[in-house]
Task: structure prediction
Amino acid sequence: MKTNIDRWQELLNNITAKVEAQADKYTDKFPDIVEADGNCLLANASNWTTGFWPGMLLIAYKKTGNPKILDRLRNFEAIQNTMFSNLKELHHDVGFMWFLSSAEDYNYTGFEVARDNAMNAALILMSRFNPKGNFIRAWNNDEGSNVDKSGWAIIDCMLNIELLYWASKITGDPRFKHVANAHADSTLENFIRSDGTVKHVVCYNPETGDAVGNLEGQGYSTESSWTRGMGWAAYGFAKAYGYTGNAKYLEASQKVIDAFLRLLPDGEIPPCDFFQPDEPCYYDSSAGAIVACAMLENARRCPEKKEYYILEAQKLLNTLTDKCADLSPDTHGILRLATQAYHKARKNVTLVYGDYYYYEAVDKLVKILKEEEV
Result:
């Protein structure tokens, strides 16, 4: 009879086998979106999602030691690194792009080239910091547009700042973590509502630093709560606590998780936005995968709530596995029923970041259940 650990270990093995099977399918472009008909859309090096497939390859390499997987990882890192000659195309998501690939490659293998490239990305991310408002600017202005984005910040960046915490840890230079902490503090003040729901885009006056409004971003409205944004907040603040030990970050993570669980009916796939209308119904499995990671990070950091977060993470991962996961080695992508944004882009598809965080969450869960180092 299978134990709880055996069941999750089998799932982890199946995900790893699928990643290995897919490794030969992608060479010069990054898997990004799998449409409902199974067609995989590929991304160029400039896309913000390019760190997630290398991140999945690294997890698979840790599990298998397969040198072919490491070769594939390094190939994609080299493609990513071509973007350093095109800085105008880079943005706050250099955290996602280089932490999960190059920084984590260095953490595991000691590969110095990966370290240097991750540090280059950290310097770019730190250069986007506005000291007047204590926020990291999200995007550059679009060519030919009169929309000024110099004061725009987004909740997603709570996970990007892990690259800055890492840079301080690796170099011993505290400037990186000071910027990360300042951004986290500003995010806590201006993005997290009293009920634990989360704003997506906050607009600051870039000259005075005052928060002057917010935008709907990828959610339903400015006053709704985009579920993936709640995941970015919950996991980002949990990570910030892990690097700093600052209790207010852990409290923020748990406040957002509490709101997520309060709003999510048992056994349901998360919607794109908790306050979207009943119809049309758009799901976002990727939000569930990120929140599962956040809960398991809290299980590591908060011993008195460890069992609670493990249980809730398992419930969520069970739902995602039973209703969304495609583990066939012959198909592209894993986690179906994800949505890019409520009002635009693609609905109920497979997103590579949903796949990444699903893989990471199952890996975390197995390690926690086995009491191994995460």
Observations:
- The CA atoms of residues 204 and 231 lie 23 Å apart.
- The longest helix spans residues 4-22.
- The chain has a mean pLDDT of 97.
